[in-house]
Amino acid sequence: MPFDVYLNVAVSGILTGLVYGLMALGLSVIFGVIRVVNFAHGEMMSIAMFLAVVLFSAFHLDPLIMMVPIAAVLFAFGYALQSGLINPFITRPEHSQFLLLVAVAIIIVNVLLIVFGPDARTVQTAYAFDSFQLGPLIVDASKVYAGAAAIAVAVLLFALFRFTLVGKAIRACADNHTGALVVGLNVNRLYALTFGIGAACVGAAGVMMTLIVDVTPMIGPTYTLLAFVIVITGGLGSMAGALLGGILIGLTEALAGVLFTPSAKSMFAFGILVLVLLFRPQGLLGKRTA
Amino acid sequence: MGAIAARVTDGLPRRTVIALVLLLAVLVAAPFFVNDYLITVLVLILYLAFTGQAWNIMMGFAGQLSLGNALYAGLGAYISAALFTRYGVDPWLGFLVAAPVAAAAGAIIGFLAFRFGVTGVYFAILTIAFAEFARIGFDHLAIVNAAAGLFLPVAQYSHNDLWRLRGDPTMFYYVMLAATLVALVLCRLLLKSRIGYFWLAIREDEQAARATGIPTFRYKMLAIVISAVVTSFAGVFYAFFYNNLFPEQVFNISQSIQMILGPIIGGVGTLFGPILGAFVLTGLAESLNNALTAFGVDMPGAEQVFYGVCLLLVVAALPEGIWPWLARRCGIAEEAP
Question: Does B297 reach chain A within 8 Å, measured CB to CB?
């Protein structure tokens, strides 16, 4: 195959990878602050995807416009989940929290299955077949919009944590739980906020994913796993690492899809995970802890 | 035999032993009193009790959360089934091939994880990743018919052939009952041995265990290998009982989750928890299914929602599981391990 085919595939993989990165960013934020592993992450994303699909097919609302309201819905969902269900589990052993979220994930998948049935659904936007041409590059418009939106949300998130008082308070909770309590922060509320922010991230990512892939109730676990692979590859607790990991995995999957067969692409993502665990267990941008 | 029986029952209260013998007698007699449908349900229950027992070695004893045990069952199923259909190798010999492969798979995962400090939920994710890797790999493996599935020849058999595992559900029931009993005894013996005490020490506090001179890496490896081998036998059984294998089903993460629900609901780290959990969970789920069918409701996913809600309730309300709570009330508690 000629070189520019690979180039095209690589660019499209990187754009998809940006959306993956945003999804993983949500997971990373939740873990980095609350130290709870959100095993229902991909399932939460599939809720957002179904919302986008339903809003589109019922009211012809463009997913790119609906991104903000759907992210807000997911924020509320995440906030409620953390304050209602997960908070009492903060002090429980790791596996106990994990199983709680496995249960939440199973319930989400199957409720979606009962409500929407097993068939794949798509969003057919007016620009679904548009593309931009740049020299030898031909890029899908949908993917460009999705990638750009992912970058925008990620920048907003960085700004939130860096420049606002709430962001500072959340980082304080992450650094030192007891210390945060001592200076009078309402840690439970900040945890709920954080889970909401992580859920909003994955919600926004989910809406963008509907521009790229079909949605079925069963895709949740696949994306949960993918988010974990990305976060571990990029480095736990590193926000930039999550984005970098996303791009790397997106690129790998895209190239593997062309060089081998598309259905085997996630094998290569797992291959990268194993390599990272072997040679750089702390992840690409993670800091080594003793 | 007598020596083993003495070791197994050593330290157990008399009424516990009597209760166990009675339960066993009921299970042995069951096929004479129930219909084929219930036998199939009982086979499923015992299958889950057996795989749950194997998982419990990892999580309950050594404290390593594995969520990819479908990998070992899948390897057992596929290897024995492929050997049987292609070369006519009998399942018991097939197990002798499958067991080392499953052990090797477990050892590779263990090596990667335990060498590099991948613990807790990250270990769980690594185990899922390997199971998924196998699922996609087998989906593309032409020698086992890839995604199209591998089928074992089904025919009417004039008699039960135990050696080739061809026969009616009652034969499979007794095979699984024997296997579950063996697994229970094995776990009890392991738990009462030096190995078991080392595992419990690792589970409670790995750093302290290492400080007292326990070679934690070696004992964690031992746990994952034993768990993998035991689970691979379940896979052999699965292949010959259901006669069809699809990577999408056999290696699916929902298989792994089904295997762990029994012990979690019954009681992680207890010997009888996996068995009780499998009975409670499958019993309730089958009743629910029958009730839905009776009311003419066809709702795929309802059973899984039920599993999810059960898991949620048990994790929230009875974090130790049902068995420790029940055993205390009946005064037949296992002595605290």
Answer: no
Pairwise CB contact (< 8 Å): A270 & B120: no
**Residue A284 lies inside a defined structural domain of this protein:** no
pLDDT tens over chain A, length 290 residues: 677 888 888 888 999 999 999 999 999 899 888 888 888 999 999 999 999 999 998 888 888 888 899 999 999 999 999 998 888 888 887 778 888 998 999 999 999 998 988 888 888 887 777 888 777 778 888 888 889 999 999 999 999 988 999 989 988 888 888 888 888 888 889 999 999 999 999 999 999 999 888 899 888 888 998 998 898 888 877 888 899 999 999 999 988 888 887 777 878 888 888 888 777 877 888 765 53
Can you tell me the ipTM of this complex?
0.81
Quick check: helix, strand or coil at residue A140? strand
CA–CA gap between residue A88 and residue B166 (Å, rounded) = 51
Residues B236-268 as b/e (b if ≥16 CB within 10 A, e otherwise) read bbbbbbeeebbbebbbbbebbbbbbbbbbbbbb
Q: Count of domains in chain A?
A: 1
B215 touches chain A (CB under 8 A): no
Q: What is the value of pTM for the model shown?
A: 0.87
A107: nearest CB among B133, B264, B308? B308
> Can you tell me the distance from the alpha carbon of A188 to that of B265, in angstroms, rounded to the nearest whole number?
29
Is residue B12 classed as helix, strand or coil in its secondary structure?
Answer: coil
Chain A's closest residue to B66, CA to CA, is: A95
Neighbours of B298 (CB within 10 A): 7
Domain assignment present for A288:
no
Interface check for B126 against chain A (CB to CB < 8 A): the answer is: yes
Of B302, B316, B319, the CB nearest to A114: B302
CATH assignment at residue A264: 1.10.3470
Compute the distance between CA of residue B308 and CA of residue A110 in angstroms, rounded to an integer. Answer: 9
Strand partners, B151: B244
Domain holding A211, by residue range, is 3-279
Which residue in A102, A108, A253 has the most chain B C-beta atoms within 10 A of its own C-beta, making it the best mutation to test that interface? A102
Which tokens in the block code for residue B330? Answer: 């009946």
Q: Which of B146, B61, B51 is nearest to B102 (CA)?
A: B51
| Helix boundaries (H) for B58-168 | 70-87, 91-115, 120-139
**Distance from C-alpha of A10 to C-alpha of A50, rounded to nearest angstrom:** 28
What b-and-e string marks burial along B107-145, b requiring 16 or more CB atoms within 10 Å of the CB? bebbebbbebebbebbbbbbbbbbbbbbbbebbebeebb
